[in-house]
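Quick one: structure tokens for this chain, please?
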Amino acid sequence: SEKVDAVVEKARREIASNMTTYGMKQNIRKLFDELRDLLQNAIEITAETSRLVKAIHKKFKDEYGFEEIEPKLFSIKPYQVELEMIFEEGEIFRSSTKTAMTEQSVVIHNLYSTLISKARDVIRQAHEDASAWGNTALTPLMQQIKDHKKQIENRLQMLRKINESTDNVAENIAHLQAEVEPLKRQRDELNMMIRGMRLDAYSADSN
């Protein structure tokens, strides 16, 4: 959203500094092109994140035998459709005779209070929703690791409560402790992946 604000404010200055109607209209077109580029960038980032999420799920299923979960993917399409409609309105506004005949300061005010304001809101919402999705995309997988680890640790605790310190119990404890280690590694591996994807609002606890 900071990028959006920077583009919008820079364009406002450029539009205001133009002394001709033609120049003003060209700068309005440039603004919409730059906003479209920002959206395209968001689409590419979201698509790449979706690919990573699917790949991580597949890795944990194939390598560790995790239950197959179809990850919930984020669709930026609704925002794209909404923005394209705003851009179409913008092109009509930019090309209209009324815009050409209106005082520059009024044109800028009308443009920014309606179309640019709406476009900015859509892009900001898309960014917020994509971030929220990204930060929970791997939650089910992390939960599987936690649940499995908890089951083993509960069994360990029960065995430790058994007063009879027989070789058999000690052997079981050693076996369960050995089972916990790969889970810790899986959790650490997933945490590294989450950090690598910059989805660090959600990570496993360190226990």
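Residues 141-196 form one domain.
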